[in-house]
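User: Second chain of the day. Same drill as before.
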Amino acid sequence: MAGLEEDIGQPRGDGRAIAARWSPAVEDERGLKALELFGNPTDAEVPLPSRPESAATARRLAQVVVLRHWKLSPKLTEDTVLLVSELVGNAVRHTGARVFGLRMKRRRGWIRVEVRDPSRGLPCLMPVAVTDVSGRGLFLIDKLADRWGVDLLPRGKTTWFEMRVGDR
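Assistant: Same format as last time:
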């Protein structure tokens, strides 16, 4: 499995691209590796570089935490992983940050995911059309999360969402 990420989309000798083979076991392995390399976002805020690849890292961390550590439902895990990806994507695309922080918390009946960045620019929920190819991040968060918001900090902000645990 090592090196699979680097090979995805790279041409083979005959010019065809190598396709990645997805499997739960491979994703679990990658998630555990991300946990080892970056830290556990339930223990402390995990700093991630502001690069597109960090969305995959954040998704893997979220999947390991929600499904394996917290033992929550696959549906809740799927929704959480999607929304984590959207928050991280927004931090990478719109904040100009070099690093952002990922934090995940659980309390009775709720999970909370936070992405902290140094920008004080507020995210804006925009109307989405069926034909739109981008700009759906906050729309998805608004539809799938039970609640979400932004906390302004002296230097930056934390964008967060929360989901109920018990009734999913």
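Confidence is low (pLDDT under 50) at residues 1-12.

User: Great, on to the next one.
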